[in-house]
Design goal:
Layout lengths: L10 H14 L4 E6 L1 H4 L2 H9 L4 E5 L4 E2 L7 E2 L13 E2 L5 E2 H6 L7 E8 L2 E14 L8 E10 L5 E6 L7 H13 L15 E3 L6 E4 L4
Parallel strand pairs: 1-2, 1-12
Antiparallel strand pairs: 2-10, 3-6, 4-5, 7-8, 8-9, 9-10, 11-12
């Protein structure tokens, strides 16, 4: 491709374009899963949600959430001078997902066995809650599932957001998260996007795009 015809796109833009292209080409998949390298992009999650695509996105421990709808609004103009306010604000107080986890009681976590690993049965503690996510720019907040995953010894926590159906079970969300975890590199850093996503299928089920790694 000639250099003058090349257009710079971010990894998030490339990811969104590939998902939409696969849909246009008739590929069937149940949801898209990716790690925090993409999960920290609020606009990407919003675009997928707006297109009706189900996702599970790992997020960083400092991801902001609201336990009530922040209902962002534009503050009324107080003076005829100057520009009219455009930026939306909220009086609601956010918290990080790590702070949310720290406030939960020990009995709130549910222990599940999700898959068989190389060393045998993999068991972890899980907790979920419906929360609101707002990036400070969107007209309104999105209400999604927040899932926490804790190793049995309590040494490691992972978090994820999903726009799965409101009644999605804890096990369903945990299974979705395992796909996102499997897409992470051993170092925890997001790998470079491959030219094509890998499709994982199970008998009698639709495939999953585990967002896309080389």
């Amino acid at each position: 491709m000639p250099e003058e015809a090349q257009v710079f796109r971010t990894k998030g833009e490339i990811a969104l374009d590939m998902v939409m292209r696969l849909r246009r080409e008739g590929l069937h998949f149940s949801f898209v899963a990716f790690d925090g390298g993409y999960g920290h992009l609020p606009w990407l999650l919003g675009e997928l949600d707006g297109e009706g695509e189900i996702f599970f996105a790992e997020v960083h421990s400092d991801q902001a959430i609201y336990l009530q709808d922040p209902a962002p609004t534009v503050v009324a103009r107080r003076s005829p001078k100057g520009r009219a306010p455009r930026r939306r604000q909220t009086a609601a107080v956010s918290m990080t997902v790590a702070e949310w986890a720290a406030t939960q009681s020990a009995s709130a976590w549910g222990r599940l066995s999700i898959r068989d690993g190389e060393k045998g049965e993999v068991i972890a503690d899980y907790l979920t809650q419906r929360v609101w996510v707002w990036d400070g720019k969107a007209p309104s907040a999105s209400r999604w599932h927040l899932l926490g995953r804790r190793e049995i010894d309590g040494t490691k926590l992972k978090f994820g957001l999903s726009n799965a159906k409101p009644r999605a079970s804890l096990r369903r969300l945990a299974e979705m998260q395992e796909r996102a975890i499997s897409s992470s590199s051993p170092s925890g850093r997001p790998r470079a996007p491959a030219a094509w996503p890998s499709i994982r299928s199970a008998a009698g089920r639709r495939g999953t795009i585990t967002w896309p790694w080389s």
